[in-house]
Every structure is written in structure tokens, then in C-alpha cells.
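COURSE: Structural Biology Practicum
ASSIGNMENT: Worksheet 4, Part C
STUDENT ID: 0417
INSTRUCTIONS: Below are two proteins. For each, the amino acid sequence is given first, followed by its C-alpha cell string. Answer the questions at the end about the second protein only.

PROTEIN I
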Amino acid sequence: MKKLSALVALSLCAAPVAYAQDGSSCANAIPMVAPSTVNVDTSTATGWINSFGPLLSPSNDIIYTFTSGATAPDGTITPTASDYAFAIYALSSCSAGAGPVPIASTGTLNQPINLAAANPPTVAGHQYFIAVTGSTAGGAGANGTVTLAVQPNLPVTLQSFEVN
């Protein structure tokens, strides 16, 4: 009986890991919050998006997501460090294969994606996606790590509420 209890307890601990969002698809996009620092590693991901509009994407992809609240998001997402030729795309939708045209992008360290300057503009109450991938010129081997500084004003999600 003790072995069965230990096995059940162990399986309950492992269950959240089995269903964790890993950015490997639109449905498994990782929630992005602000302010935060996001460390992305595409080297173990898969190349499941072949293009972003006219921009080819032969390398691996990891997707993040956020949903705007009562106002349009107007923060920035800035790559601050990287060990490979990256590309970061802000998207108003998400799909495998031929992905949508980005509304904003960057492939340069310290050059932010400014959501207030997105084209078309961001709107309230909409789900957005941030794709981290390799540059087209880097080919299929453009994979590695990039650090993103996510600055307000992305929507804030209420984590808890209590009245004392």
C-alpha cells in the first residue's frame, strides 16, 4: 500500500510537467507577462513554422502569447543578448506551416519590438503571439539562445485577490 501511495504521489507531481506549455505549437504557446526577462533556447525546438508571410523560416521556432486587456498593448519586447542570428516576430494570429505576416519584428540586439507602432495597430481584447526563431539568412542551423526584456504595458493577469 505504501508503494502505491508513493507511486500516486509521484505521478501527481509529474502530471503538470507532462502538460506544460513549451512553445512548440500555437496551442502550447508560453504565456508572456510584463515586466519580465525571458530566456529562450530554440536549439531543442522544432521548425514547425516554415514562413512568416513572405519571410522564410528554415530554423526552429518557439511561440509565446499574451491577450490584451481593456486597452491595446503598447509595451516593448527587446532582445538583449543572443548567441545566434535570431528573428523575433509579433503576430496577430498563429498557424503552423505558412504563418501570418508579422505586425512587428526585430533581428537586432537592443532594437525593440514596439507594440504601439505595430502595423496594423494592436487592439484591446485580442490574443497576440511572439515567435522566436532564426534569421532567414542563418538557414536551418540558426538556433540558439536569446534573452528578451519584456517591458510594460502588456496586459496584467490577476494572480490572486484577498480581502483582509
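PROTEIN II
(use this one for the questions)
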Amino acid sequence: MNQRNTYTRHVEIGFGRPGGFWAGVVAVLTAIVVIVLAVLFSALFLGLFVALGIGVAIRAWLLGRQARRGQPDVIEADYTVVETEDAPGRRKGP
């Protein structure tokens, strides 16, 4: 955008890049829009990953509770060893 000062000279108003004032305004507005969209998408994905993490943690906690409920604490049993033949190299008793 060009303006004339009191001496009728052209004065260029810009942001130091080719295209003048309006190109600078468009660049600043574009940068603001890109930053706002980046923040929104970052927040969206962060919320999604937090929700997935909470869901997985709750599922693991529920599965752990079910596994503990189904198992007895101690199993007691008697067993007997039955050998059908002597093992080779078996040591004879005293």
C-alpha cells in the first residue's frame, strides 16, 4: 500500500518482504491460523491418547481383579511317585 506524505513522495508500508502491506497482513493471519490449528489438533490427539490410556488401564485392572478372584490362595495336595522301571545309573540305597 502506498501513501503520499506531505511532500508528495511515495512511502512504501510493508513488513520488509516483497508484496507490500497486504502480503504481510496475509502472512501474519496465515501464521496465526496455522498456530491455532496446531494447538487444536495437538489438544485433540493428546486427549485421544489420554482416553485410550485410561481405557487400557481400567481394562487391565478389571482383568487383574477377575484373575485374582478365580484363583485359590493355596492348593494342598498329596502325591505319590510311581516308577515303572529302574532308571539306568540309579544309585542303590545304603
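ANSWER KEY EXCERPT:
Q1: The longest strand covers residues 2-4.
Q2: The mean pLDDT is 78.
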